Amino acid sequence: MENLSFSPVKQILSSKMTFQALVLSLVCVVLGKAKVITQTEQRVVKVGDSVTLSCTLTEPKDIVQVTWQKDSVKSQSNIATYSKSTGLKIQKPYQDRMNFTSLMLNHTSITFWSTRVDDTGCYLCLFNTFPLGSFAGRSCLGVSGLNASIHYNISEGHLIATCSAVGFPEPTISWNNVFNYTPTQEKFTYDNGVVSITSELKVYDSQNISKEDLTCRVSNENEEMELPISMKKSRWLR
């Protein structure tokens, strides 16, 4: 129980605070009734596949705009927006390979026509309403794929071979023969879970590698590949 001997000023402030608290409580009740339902919380597809992400706002609201964002640890960046007044807008990195496939304001869908490994990550669908603000849903997409390359340089009888791989799930790199040398390896994990690995092998004894080919082997849970360097065809070998 509050003290009834408040001064008039304190009573006015108390009344205002009580009214504001009541309004806030009503808003919270309204917000609590509406929720965003996502088609699925997590999707996993292969590189090049098409995939659709969908969200539905359960309660009818005055929706001004629908926004899709790619979520990351550092920030959220808009990838697509739609409203009846301004139409749809797709950001440049996603143009020609992603679009809205549902233009209903209370049910939104975007489709990636040809997914890439770097599309891996989580996406937010935002229903921007007036005057209650935004309602958000979250879907995560995993694009399973593997990209790899090998480069080498030969100088004064020494070989430096660099094998690189980018993929999801995390790739691994190995060599069919390291010729008693130890390769160095660097790994970087992006915010979306995609992993980049680089392995560098330095061989200083040309006689050791003139007898057989050198191959970089790259693999992850779903795929594997071999990237050979044909030592026998190299002109520097004598």
Automatic annotation (TrEMBL):
Annotated GO biological process:
heterotypic cell-cell adhesion; negative regulation of macrophage activation; negative regulation of neuroinflammatory response; regulation of immune response
Instruction: Say which species the protein is native to.
Output: Bambusicola thoracicus (Chinese bamboo-partridge)
> Which Pfam family, any one of them, does this sequence belong to?
V-set
Give the matching CDD domains.
IgV_1_MRC-OX-2_like
The record gives the membrane topology as: Single-pass type I membrane protein
**UniProt keyword list:** Disulfide bond, Glycoprotein, Immunoglobulin domain, Membrane, Signal, Transmembrane, Transmembrane helix
One GO MF annotation is: cell-cell adhesion mediator activity
Q: Which PANTHER family match?
A: OX-2 MEMBRANE GLYCOPROTEIN
Q: Which InterPro entries match?
A: CD200_Ig_V_dom, CD80_C2-set, Ig-like_dom, Ig-like_dom_sf, Ig-like_fold, Ig_sub, Ig_V-set, OX2G-like
Q: What's the protein here called?
A: Ig-like domain-containing protein
Span of domain Ig-like = 34-125, 162-230
Subcellular localization is given as: Membrane
